[in-house]
Design goal:
heterodimer; A: alpha+beta; Butyryl-Coa Dehydrogenase, subunit A, domain 1; Butyryl-CoA Dehydrogenase, subunit A, domain 3; 3 domains; four-stranded antiparallel sheet; 12 helices; 48% helix; B: Rossmann fold; two-stranded antiparallel sheet; 28% strand; globular
Chain lengths: 393, 273
């Protein structure tokens, strides 16, 4: 099997021993228990309960939450390595845990009060609760500051009204970080506020599941807030500073998205190599055809270029550096490289790759999301260009 | 109960073997813990915990390996699973055989006085299956090999060991201290009865995964570095490899048209029926 070692990354970025151990142990879990279930999960549109329990038990919901709140407080590099390994299994596993390790909890981790952290983070770290992030609205996608959800102060609470959509895990989330306008005059410049809203709050409902091109194991949902009373104690960070918080949260998530794309590319390469060696056409394995070799070479090259860049950026963030620019580049490059790799993998598999019972078919559909979610390729390019014009690179 | 578990790193059995002259080319080998040794670690952990009371530990599990510095990685993985301590005896695979291994573990057993030594029934690379037997002989301890089940009896002074033998299961009672080598079924859900964990407790099949917390805790657990010399091992290698060659390549198969033809060819050509 093709594994990370085969590309010799350790010669470029030597991982610390404990992170290497996190990798090998996660790989063992992925290879033994998760990867063999990919087609079953795709068919049943459900992660088997015992696997969710295993992930909970082993601590995969609390990778980034600080230790004092029940998580592991692992470094960005360790988180990236874990997401990479999980990326080799069905995308649903990444999606299931990524709210609790990323956008669903980062608001609380970055800007929450001590009381808020103690109240909510332990349940999220254990995986007892699932977290989601609700920024996007029907009229506010890439232009996130155009959100229309309103929160109006009413004594010691806010009354929330609005609609959020395409919210990953929206239907199963116990706690949602919701962004709403508190001052229409200033909006992104001091008029958007972040709140956490618990499932079951009156006036908050899951309006519908939004069927997607992807596997729909972990679903997108439309969330509606109608005169929903949210205690003032649920405001995350300063009132009016929600937009800046949202941008910080999204910035943090980009490296883990890149890591996930990288892992999925490794899986695509691995199954493509196996198929190319086994599939005989014109009396020889198709792996002997230059056209197939070139496709494998291109995906392998993207993987080899991406990995050290990702680990370097993650290590730099862990050292306290700002890596906004690198994170945008990595998210852009990884999601687009994954798109290319998925396309090649389907081509290498031929008709088989178009069939529902082939692993690459599901990955191909799911991969399309990665160029859109948490900042489209165009938004990443805009961020990168802004940095370039400001002289960062 | 204090348990000493032996652990050897072996090349990934799924990786293609490369030969370089008269020896294995191990420059690109992916090393991993010998599967049966991993089962031995799992056995030791199950014996020293109360799985019905939040896996409360009761006993000590020490894992020992003989090998180069890199074996730390495999030892750390056993610490991540839950072992308390590890010992790494410096040595190179090429300079070891079952005799030296058995003598080394003997010295450690005499020094640390464990109640039980658990070993995999064999290592997936050499497949010798004799270190445990030699060790028990040198120590003068009872042995039970190919264990598929273990039950702690006599208030922790003895073990009832179900051994997998050709005719079925043979149950042996060994008083402690003893040497036990484990087989595949020792990691079945009900294979271990330690007198503390509820008898009907069902473990997940196979060796446990290290939790992320366990992995991070493992870096703080001690690994003792020692040498054959420091332990006073004077044994010399008794086995010499004379040649090493890859098995001959398999010939291409043939397709037969009918069952009759298959039977006829198995009889007249392959001469197996």
């Amino acid at each position: 099997m093709l594994t990370a070692e085969n590309y010799g990354y350790s010669g470029i970025v030597q991982l610390p021993q404990d992170i290497e151990l996190l990798r090998t142990q996660t790989r063992r879990l992925v290879d033994r228990d998760l990867r063999p279930r990919t087609l079953e999960i795709e068919r049943e549109r459900k992660i088997p309960e015992e696997l969710v329990a295993t992930l909970r038990e082993l601590g995969y919901f609390g990778i980034t939450i600080p230790e004092r709140y029940g998580g592991l407080g692992l470094s960005t590099l360790a988180h990236a390595v874990l997401q990479e390994e999980l990326g080799r299994a069905h995308a649903a596993f990444n999606m299931l845990i990524s709210g609790n390790n990323g956008i669903g909890v980062m608001g609380l981790v970055l800007a929450g009060s001590e009381e808020q952290k103690e109240r909510w983070l332990p349940r999220l770290a254990s995986g007892e609760w699932i977290a989601a992030f609700a920024l996007t609205e029907p009229n506010a996608g890439s232009d996130a500051q155009a959100i229309e959800a309103r929160a109006v102060r009413d004594g010691d609470r806010f009354i929330l009204n609005g609609t959020k959509h395409y919210i990953s895990r929206g239907d199963i989330a116990d706690l949602v970080t919701v962004f709403a306008v508190t001052d229409p005059a200033t909006r992104a410049r001091g008029g958007i506020t972040a709140f956490v809203v618990e499932r079951g709050t009156p006036g908050f409902r899951v309006a519908r599941i939004q069927d997607s091109m992807g596997s729909d194991v972990i679903k997108q949902a439309e969330l509606v807030f109608e005169d929903c009373p949210v205690p003032a104690g649920n405001v995350v960070g300063e009132i009016g500073q929600g937009f800046a918080t949202a941008m910080r949260i999204l910035d943090l998530g980009r490296l883990s998205l890149a890591a996930r794309c990288l892992g999925t590319m490794e899986e695509l390469l691995s199954v493509s190599v196996a198929h190319a060696k086994n599939r005989v056409q014109f009396k020889k394995p198709i792996a002997e055809q230059p056209a197939i070799q070139h496709m494998l070479a291109d995906t392998a090259t993207d993987i080899a270029m991406l990995r050290p860049a990702l680990y370097t950026a993650a290590s730099r963030r862990d050292a306290g550096e700002t890596v906004t620019q690198d994170a945008a580049m990595l998210k852009l490059y990884a999601s687009e490289a994954l798109g290319r790799a998925a396309d090649r993998a389907v081509q290498i598999h031929g008709g088989m790759g178009f069939m529902r019972d082939c692993v690459v078919e599901g990955i191909y559909r799911e991969a399309r999301m990665m160029r859109i979610v948490e900042g489209t390729s165009e938004i990443q390019r805009m961020l990168i260009a802004r940095g370039v014009l400001e002289g960062q690179r | 109960m204090k348990i000493l578990v032996t652990a050897k790193r072996v090349p990934d059995p799924e990786q293609k073997v490369k030969l370089k002259g008269n020896e294995l080319d191990q420059s690109a080998t992916n090393w991993q813990l010998n599967q049966f040794d991993e089962y031995a670690v799992e056995t030791a952990l199950r014996l020293t915990e109360n799985a019905s009371a939040g896996n409360a530990r009761d006993g000590e599990v020490v894992v020992v390996s003989i090998g180069p510095k890199d074996v730390q990685q495999q030892l750390r993985s056993t610490l991540a699973m839950g072992a308390d301590k590890a010992i790494l005896v410096a040595g190179e695979d090429a300079e070891l055989d079952a005799e030296i291994v058995a003598r080394t573990i003997q010295k450690l057993a005499e020094r640390d006085k464990p109640d039980l030594i658990l070993m995999g029934k064999l290592a997936a690379d050499s497949e010798s299956n004799d270190a445990g037997q030699r060790l028990a002989g040198y120590l003068g301890w009872p042995q039970a090999t190919f264990a598929g089940t273990i039950e702690v009896v006599d208030g922790g002074k003895a073990l009832l060991v179900g051994r997998e033998v050709d005719a079925g299961i043979e149950t042996k009672k060994v008083t402690l201290p003893a040497v036990v080598t484990v087989d595949l079924r020792i990691v079945a859900p009900h294979a271990i009865k330690n007198g503390k964990t509820a008898k009907d407790h069902a473990y997940a099949e196979g060796p446990r995964y290290a939790s992320l917390k366990g992995i991070m805790a493992a870096k703080k657990k001690p690994i003792e570095d020692t040498t054959l010399q420091a332990l006073g091992v004077t044994a010399q290698k008794r086995i010499k490899t004379t040649t090493l060659e890859a098995p001959p390549a398999r010939k291409a198969g043939i397709k037969v048209q009918s069952v009759e033809e298959l039977v006829q060819k198995l009889h007249s050509e392959a001469k197996v029926i």
